[in-house]
């Protein structure tokens, strides 16, 4: 191992690789458990520290994370923290702090005062047992009060978005209280740090005076300048490199100023971000440029450094674990109890009040920042630091499962359904409903072209929905950009523009979805869709186009599913239907029949006969086609618009591809191995027909109730069903 490390830079690069890789791997598990990414990053840091990696491989750990390499790791992680605290300030919307009602005032103040008081009381027990003799009791008590009062505003915003709570009464109230808590806690922390760093009463007074002067200068001098800077950044030129450089210079100066004053550079970074103009798009553009590098590369280094300082082995006695448990109980009692009781006093039901308490008890990253400050200043010992880190992990980890238990989906649905009634629509039997699931912008125009042709020209007899599911994200700019509504509108804009050209009404839906296949099946059931249209994309690793989410939707949807491979579909005049007689082939032929009825498309049915088979195969195909086109009206359509073409070929898929090259607008084919279209969750062999087809292709899977397994995503989730049923129409 020593031979691989030639200099400090090489060691740092190896450390960074291990830290980021471990954080992302643990993140995969965290997402499965519906936990925020901060849980994974903190856990990865602890795993790489002396608590596990250093315990299992002490020699390797001593080489990779030697004591002389930690100052560089700490320095880079602190730079990352400065940038991250600036981003936290950018996320903070001043609108949340203005015009607060009685409920948010009471809850936010109670959720700070009660935990702070309980932290002070707990200090009476912890100080003689866990503190050094040279630490003033006042500094220790004030710090414990602040540490108990923290709420992780950025983590909370992501949890609310992922759980679809941000637009509810509980979500709006909680995010307002968390924003107030965040600002108040950092102001108190700045005061505590100034006291801890001062040499006496006179020094503390001067530190407070300079801090107030700094805040006044930022509010009345720098803020107007930033407003003009924001207007320039929102102009046609956009956010140039010069503007980014000016902002970073201001960030450096602000952080350096607060460090010189004695209240830590993180406060200066947060303050500059908080006063940035939020209404021009300047803050969002700036966040998009900075956050990926800061959050993906720099921030995990801070978590790893925190993990290296976390020694779970220090809790080597029953008394140590009892004290750790006591800290967790006091932290939950103060934050959860204070917030929940205050919310109940303001008139919320106990269920809603408990949800507010659970959410406000989330500590996450902000707690770790505070704890590292306390350890650096010598206010808390390494043993107490380890206990507090475990408390931060437990209180963050418990948020999602407790929220699901206290505030179940059906209760959320009642709030989401509190919207105006939509325009009455015809009965489901009188309309043809198509649900278009748009993952990429480029697939939208082709989808709506096909859907409008299938649904027909009568607006009373068609119902078209465009669904955009947004994966959960840890990016703060996502929440600054008004979340899923604006993101969904951007992705659906090409589809809606094409719908406007076709004079077709499309109702759009968009929301955050950690389980897209599950939610697609739910929406299809709620909207009583006759057909679910999904797009396609080239998989990153697998060669199977009909795999992943597409496979899960085709397997679990309780209606017919079509996968559109769009290669420039602009009009539907000439159709090809390769036909082998399976149920999926009949479903494809039924859609072709509908297109012939609605838009007068010419349909060619291709039946491939093996040269070695009996000649009456063609007669059997004719009978099956007649079954689809039964009735007098369909009989006339069959004579004028439909042609049955029988060819001999050893490979049905190759025969279909040869015929598809003769000028067809769209090929409709049932899923099945005979056409080289087997459904697989993952595969290394590409679907032959999809890869070789020269024109647009629709792969159809017919819904067969007996074929849908019990474990498939059942479209019965009350939260989504009720919410979508009551959602107003949008064009």
Short précis:
With 731 residues, the chain is α/β, with parallel strands linked by helices.
Description:
By secondary structure, the protein is α/β, with parallel strands linked by helices. The chain has two domains: 2-407, Na+/H+ antiporter like fold, CATH 1.20.1530; 434-469 and 480-725, Rossmann fold (3-Layer(aba) Sandwich). The protein is built from 30 helices and ten strands. It has helices at 8-32, 37-48, 53-56, 58-64, 70-91, 102-130, 137-149, 153-162, 169-197, 201-233, 241-261, 265-274, 282-308, 318-345, 350-360, 364-376, 382-397, 399-406, 409-416, 444-455, 476-480, 484-501, 516-526, 548-556, 583-599, 617-628, 632-641, 652-660, 688-692, 718-725; strands at residues 432-437, 462-470, 506-512, 531-534, 560-565, 574-578, 602-609, 642-648, 666-670, 696-701. The chain has a ten-stranded mixed sheet, sandwiched between helices. β6 (574-578), α25 and β7 (602-609) form a beta-alpha-beta unit. α5 (70-91) packs antiparallel against α13, α9 crosses α10 and α20 (444-455) packs across α22 (484-501). The longest helix is centred in the first third of the chain and has 33 residues, at 201-233. The protein is elongated, with a radius of gyration of 31 Å. Keywords: Ion transport, Membrane, Transmembrane, Transmembrane helix, Transport. Pfam families: Na_H_Exchanger (PF00999), Usp (PF00582). Residues 462-561, 572-701 form the UspA domain.
């Amino acid at each position: 191992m020593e031979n691989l490390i030639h200099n400090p830079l090489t060691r740092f690069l190896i450390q960074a690789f291990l830290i980021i890789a471990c954080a992302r791997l643990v993140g995969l598990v965290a997402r499965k458990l519906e936990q925020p990414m901060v849980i994974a990053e903190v856990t990865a840091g602890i795993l790489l520290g002396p608590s596990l990696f250093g315990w299992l491989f002490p020699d390797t750990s001593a080489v990779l994370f030697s004591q002389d390499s930690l100052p560089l790791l700490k320095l880079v992680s602190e730079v990352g923290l400065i940038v991250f605290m600036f981003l936290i300030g950018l996320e903070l919307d001043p609108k949340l702090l203005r015009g607060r009602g009685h409920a948010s005032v009471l809850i936010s103040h109670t959720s700070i005062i009660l935990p702070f008081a309980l932290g002070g009381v707990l200090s009476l027990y912890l100080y003689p047992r866990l503190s050094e003799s040279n630490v003033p009791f006042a500094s220790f008590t004030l710090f414990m009060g602040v540490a108990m009062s923290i709420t992780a505003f950025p983590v909370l915003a992501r949890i609310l978005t992922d759980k679809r709570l941000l637009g509810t009464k509980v979500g709006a109230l909680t995010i307002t209280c968390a924003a107030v808590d965040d600002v108040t806690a950092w102001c108190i922390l700045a005061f505590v740090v100034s006291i801890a760093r001062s040499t006496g009463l006179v020094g503390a007074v001067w530190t407070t005076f300079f801090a107030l002067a700094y805040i006044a200068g930022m509010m009345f001098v720098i803020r107007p300048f930033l407003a003009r800077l924001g207007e320039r950044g929102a102009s046609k030129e956009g956010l140039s490199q010069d503007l980014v450089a000016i902002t970073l210079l201001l960030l450096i100066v602000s952080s350096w100023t607060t460090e010189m004053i004695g209240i830590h550079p993180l406060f200066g970074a947060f303050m500059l971000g908080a006063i940035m103009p939020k209404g021009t798009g300047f803050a969002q553009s700036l966040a998009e440029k900075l956050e990926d590098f800061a959050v993906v590369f720099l921030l995990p280094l801070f978590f790893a450094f925190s993990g290296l300082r976390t020694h779970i082995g220090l809790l080597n006695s029953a008394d140590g674990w009892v004290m750790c448990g006591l800290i967790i109980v006091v932290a939950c009692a103060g934050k959860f109890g204070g917030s929940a009781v205050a919310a109940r006093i303001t008139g919320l039901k106990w269920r809603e009040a408990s949800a507010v308490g659970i959410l406000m008890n989330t500590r996450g990253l902000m707690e770790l920042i505070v704890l590292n400050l306390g350890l650096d200043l010598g206010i808390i010992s390494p043993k107490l630091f380890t206990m507090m880190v475990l408390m931060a992990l437990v209180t963050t980890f418990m948020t999602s499962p407790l929220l699901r238990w206290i505030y179940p989906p059906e209760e959320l649905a009642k709030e989401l359904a509190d919207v105006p009634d939509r325009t009455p629509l015809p009965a489901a039997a009188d309309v043809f409903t198509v649900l278009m699931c748009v993952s990429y912008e480029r697939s939208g125009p082709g989808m709506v072209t096909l859907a409008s042709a299938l649904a027909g020209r009568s607006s009373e007899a068609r119902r078209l929905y465009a669904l955009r599911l947004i994966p959960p994200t840890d990016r703060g700019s996502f929440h600054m950009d008004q979340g899923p509504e604006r993101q969904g509108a951007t992705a659906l804009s090409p589809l809606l523009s094409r719908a406007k050209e076709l004079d077709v009404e499309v109702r759009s839906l968009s929301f955050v979805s950690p389980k897209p296949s599950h939610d697609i099946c739910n929406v299809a059931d709620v909207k009583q869709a006759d057909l679910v249209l999904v797009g396609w994309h080239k998989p990153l690793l697998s060669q199977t186009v009909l795999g992943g989410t597409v496979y899960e939707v085709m397997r679990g949807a309780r209606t017919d599913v079509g996968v559109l491979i769009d290669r420039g579909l602009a009009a539907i005049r000439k159709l090809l239907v390769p036909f082998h007689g399976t149920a999926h082939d009949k479903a494809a032929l039924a859609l072709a029949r509908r297109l012939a009825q609605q838009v007068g498309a010419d349909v060619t049915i291709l039946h491939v006969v093996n040269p070695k088979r009996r000649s009456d195969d063609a007669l059997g195909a004719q009978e099956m086609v007649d079954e689809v086109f039964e009735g007098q009206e369909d009989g006339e359509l069959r004579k004028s618009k439909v042609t049955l073409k029988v060819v001999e070929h050893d490979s049905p898929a190759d025969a279909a591809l040869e015929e598809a090259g003769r000028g067809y607008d769209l090929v409709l084919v049932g899923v099945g191995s005979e056409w080289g279209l087997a459904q697989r969750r993952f595969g290394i062999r590409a679907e032959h027909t999809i890869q070789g087809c020269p024109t647009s292709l629709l792969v159809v899977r017919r819904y067969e109730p007996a074929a849908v397994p019990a474990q498939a995503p059942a479209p019965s989730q009350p939260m989504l069903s009720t919410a979508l049923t009551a959602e107003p129409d949008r064009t």
